[in-house]
Design brief:
The protein is α+β, with helices and mostly antiparallel strands and 133 residues long. It is 37% helix and 13% strand. It has a two-stranded parallel sheet with strand order 1-2. Strands 3-4 form a two-stranded antiparallel sheet.
């Protein structure tokens, strides 16, 4: 999740026109503590019983942890427009594909927001490279 945080401005447009929700089956108290310590700029949801994972075909392992990290992009009309199952969390190309998938369906940025985004992702910026819901 730290890679998503570190690339939030570029991949998720700093939250402008994009909503990112991390879903985990960790207990809410444990997840809240971890979220605060890691300073994530996006929200999380708890799915202790794994119903969300099951509904997207991810499922749970015998130890009750999600079997594979999956990334799903939902367009503004509520349709799934991109799925990476499993998501290659250590593959830089996976993040490029995710950014392109988000750009294809995200609300367009106006000129000022586009300029702000370009400044945020400039090479000298301080960014690192790459429950029921």
């Amino acid at each position: 999740m730290e890679a998503y945080r570190d690339q939030y401005a570029s991949i998720f447009r700093g939250g402008r026109g994009v909503t990112m929700i991390g879903i985990s089956n960790d207990p809410p108290e444990e997840m809240a503590s971890w979220m605060a310590d890691a300073d994530f700029p996006f929200v999380f949801a708890t799915d202790i019983e794994g119903r969300t994972a099951d509904s997207f075909g991810t499922g749970l392992r015998a130890n009750a942890m999600v079997s594979r990290r999956t990334v799903i992009v939902v367009d503004p009309e509520g349709r799934i427009s991109y799925t990476a199952f499993p998501f290659g969390a250590i593959d830089p190309m996976a993040y490029e594909e995710l950014e392109a998938a988000i750009a294809a369906v995200a609300t367009p940025l106006d000129e000022g927001e586009q300029q702000d985004r370009e400044e945020e992702t400039a090479p000298d910026a301080a960014l690192l490279p790459a429950g029921d819901c």
